[in-house]
Design brief:
The termini are far apart. A 5-stranded mixed β-sheet has the order 2-1-5-3-4, sandwiched between helices. The protein is α+β, with helices and mostly antiparallel strands and about 210 residues long. It is about 40% helix and about 15% strand. It has helices spanning about 20-55, 80-90, 145-150, 160-175, 180-185, 195-210; strands at about 60-65, 70-75, 105-110, 115, 130. α3 crosses α6 (about 195-210) and α4 packs across α6. The protein is globular. The protein contains 6 helices and 5 strands, in the order αββαβββαααα.
Amino acid sequence: MSTELPEPYLSPPTGSTDSPLTSTRRTFIATSTAIGGAVIAGSSLGASQQAAAAEQAPASRVSLSVNGRRRTVTVDNRASLLDLLREHFGLTGAKKGCNAGACGACTVLVDGRRQNACLTLAVRLEGAEVTTIEGLSDEDELHPLQQAFIDEDAYQCGYCTPGQIVSGVGCIQEGHTGSPEEIREWMSGNICRCGCYVKIVRAVEQTARRK
């Protein structure tokens, strides 16, 4: 049988005052410190690079009309119309729901046509006319469809309501209100998680008749 001791139990070199345990612990601490410092340095460098990249993000100057008011702003080329409206202009009526064009909560009118603001690049709207829920009313007088939503109680939580109303206005302007079925078809891009569809359709239908 071999009498050779395993490496951890070998005697320290002659003249050394450190035990194997002390050496191992000291080596571990030194290694950990070096690795930790490298990680922190790398993280700091990465954050600095990201900040520099953000500062250098391409931007463009765009001029458009929002609710009848001409606005000019320099915006990140990647910014959506929804972010421009909410973060630059303080128009928070258009909601950020799915942010993928699937729910319709951010619906606005661009040159009179319904559009998902979350999927529209702001820089592509040079000279465009944008109408949000805030621009539908005439000062203190509500838009007829806004009033119809109140009369028909066509909302519950209200989160989708701005997009529903703007989409309904567009639907009426486009002439797609010949029947409840047609309204449902052309309003299908706007989701109401509370399930107020019957009352929403009724509000659009009645407003279209009064027009």
